[in-house]
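Morning run. Coffee first, then this:
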Amino acid sequence: MNELIIPHKLNKGDTIALISISGGRAGDEDMLPRYEEGKHRLSERFGLNVIETPNSLKGSSFLYEHPELRAMDLMWALKNPDVKGIVCNMGGDDSYRVLPYIDTQVIHDNPKVFMGYSDIATWMAVFAYAGVRAYYGPNLLTPIAQPVGLDKYTEDAMRRVLFTSETIGEIKPCSEFTPIEWKNVSDPDEIKWTPNSGYHILQGKGTHFGRIFGGTAGPLRQIMGTKYYPSSEFFEGAFVMLETGLLYDSGLAFLHELRAFAASGMFDKAEGIITKSLDSEEREILLKVINNEVHRNDMVIMENADFVHRTPMTVIPMGARCEIDCENARFSILESGVC
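And here it is:
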């Protein structure tokens, strides 16, 4: 993996733009109060001046029908000298439809903090293609605007990665987690938290080093065959972060998903895999593909990382050099997220 251009850090008083580059729920009437709460938290907690891209609040139906305007919003935010960073309102399922309208030279020439997760995994690949680091982390609607309040783990991760040029260091697992909550909840007791068991080393010994890249599996699969999908050489020596798992309660679908990535060369020379918490069937399928089909029983596999569809979330700077200490189940990022 080639080194990527690193954007400048965010500072108090900076202007950031909120964008609906995938799903458009932020602009739907029932979601607007949640959107405003998330916007308020970014302003109040981080001291940011928060604005919208021109089409970001036009709603789900309109933005689905106009992928070209979603692309225009990204180009607008990147070219706008007043905008220092971009945060995605939410994920979705069709970022790939925006790609024909993107000028990656604009991304390359205007490196800025760009953060989101879920379907925004597509944009991690697009920014990497353009040679720029992007940030796999919180969207506005969740978890920044999660009901009751922004949790400390997520807030601290954003500060540590986006607002300082100091080395990030060890990323400790969260102490407890809760499912993503889309309902309007005002009582903290309605949010059910589960104690977290921490990282699990499913496979591997010793200490491993590599640059990190990835995200949610489905969006990455959608761009296979496009120029934006990374080559097998891109993944050489990399930690592949992959939120994957049983699809539609089907172990066969999960097996097919992993085999698609294997066929693409993703695992051939990778240093390791970092993934979500897996159940026994998922572990069996993953080990079957990696060890029996890709023949990589030397690859480290760490599960239960905090970049998945639950709260809280950490922030992962794409392409950053990382370390996994298998003996102590420790994960560290060995450089700063921003410059």
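The two ends are 19 Å apart (CA to CA). Good start to the day.
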